[in-house]
Amino acid sequence: MARAPLLQLNDISLTFGGDPIFHDLDLVVQTGDRVALVGRNGSGKSTLMKVMAGLIEADRGGRVIPPGTSVGYMEQDPDLSAYATLGDFATANLDPAEGYKVDIVAEGLKFDPAVSVESASGGERRRAALAKLLAEAPDLMLLDEPTNHLDIEAIAWLEDQLSTTRAGFVLISHDRAFLRALTRATLWIDRGQVRRQEQGFAAFEDWRDKVWADEDEARHKLDRKIKSEGRWAVEGISARRKRNQGRLRELQAMRADRASMIKRQGTAEMALASGPKSGRRVVEATGIAKTFGDRTILRPFDLRVMRGDRVAFVGPNGAVKTTLLKLLIGEMEPDQGSVTLGTGLEMAVFDQNRAKLDPDMTLWDSLASDPAMGVSGKADQILVRGQPKHVVGYLKEFLFDERQARAPVRSLSGGERARLLLAKIMARESNLLILDEPTNDLDIETLDLLQDLLGDYDGTVLLVSHDRDFLDRVATTTIAIPGDGTATTYAGGWSDYQAQKGETEPSPSEKTAPKQGTKPAEKPADKPAQSGLSFTEKHRLDALPAIIERLAAEIAKLEQFLMDPDLFTKEPLKFKKATEALVERQTALTDAEEEWLTLEAKAEEA
To answer: Quick one: 174 and 223 in the same domain?
Structure first.
């Protein structure tokens, strides 16, 4: 049975600053549609959503909303200036008797409607905008990055609300788990063209890769035909007085088609380089606790982080995940207990507030005046992992164009600011990465690249994120911080934590006892402990086989590379680096195997 349209865009064309954003765009959103709107940062997703919402008027074309159909839009940066409190804004279009709807949504999204607009944070403003939309319950919801600034619990609540709504919605989000769970169709913006597939986001990457493969094949065939016809045109001059003009016109048309093909934007050329190897033990926290005023934010907690670990910290907003990070890296002192940092640490920090970026600086000056880049002042070149590189050239590696180099940081989108901060921390060698909400605003392709880089990174990673998919792909250990002062350690990423927490999470009475931080809940009497290992040691024992396998594979690749008899003569620098890397990984493999044997023996002795 045909479904009624909620929104139609007909022959839409839109140009900003001389560059076409969309051309001849036709689009229909129907009753019950659950659509993912995806594309690279800067591809025009938010612009298209504003056209759908009627906030931007196209240069040409029409927008049709059937009579009686309501459309609601949640934007990234809502204007609340006309309201005193967040609740006033959220209830503005509701009947006074329906104000309770905002209170219900506010509880799920974890914000206080009584907070004044003037004192509200950016995250609270966004949650108020989302609450307003959900409480109004329009026929079509347009949601632009609704999960930004939400913690995992609030994301799960929102996911449940959207999964049961009868309204249609179009959704922009970088949260892949959120998109996979909710969407049934996908709109993909790529170089000004909008494609639609009647499958949810789970099928997007395969679809995208096939489209690009077909496109590459068509381009290759066209190039071969142009080359063949061009050779005919040149060689036929001496053989014929009168050339085939129709064939020449066809050649000119093919060349015009080839020239009009828009090159795909490449992936950011990000790279991570590990500095000198740190000691085996990176962080040793023993009985650390912290109190702010009358509130105990962390009860006695033990944690050992070994070289190569990827430790994720998860929990609701306000659960002091960032505070725990600062305690572990020595930026803050615990009220009791001790933290010992390992030897030879080279630390790089990605902070969630992007505080290392001065909004009034240009992108150029932000890099060229950073002492960590090995330069100061108005330099044209910076040091990138020990090698000089031109500022603009380095910015291009992170998908910035030359015009943006002289623009202020404040003009950047959230995703662009994240890429600029990544450019700063990736320019230096490190062996300990502190990543506090690195995934916010990054597009899917950049997220894929970042997680691959972290997988190959030889150093240690401490990570805070609400992106469940990213946690599953990166983390080897998860520290759950529910906000009641406890912290509990689980092996693996988010899904592993969810599977384990019912068995290991402390009961309410146990949470009040001292030193419950990383110890698992006691097992029933008929299931005695199976080893004499501590909780952290057992996690380490579980993780070591994968580490040993990875190191062995890297050693095999390096040995194969060094087998080239001409390498030393032709590429002495590459030979030297590869040799050093081989020695380093062989040492790491020996250490890992010895550690595994020690822990395995300890487990068997119990």
So the answer is: no
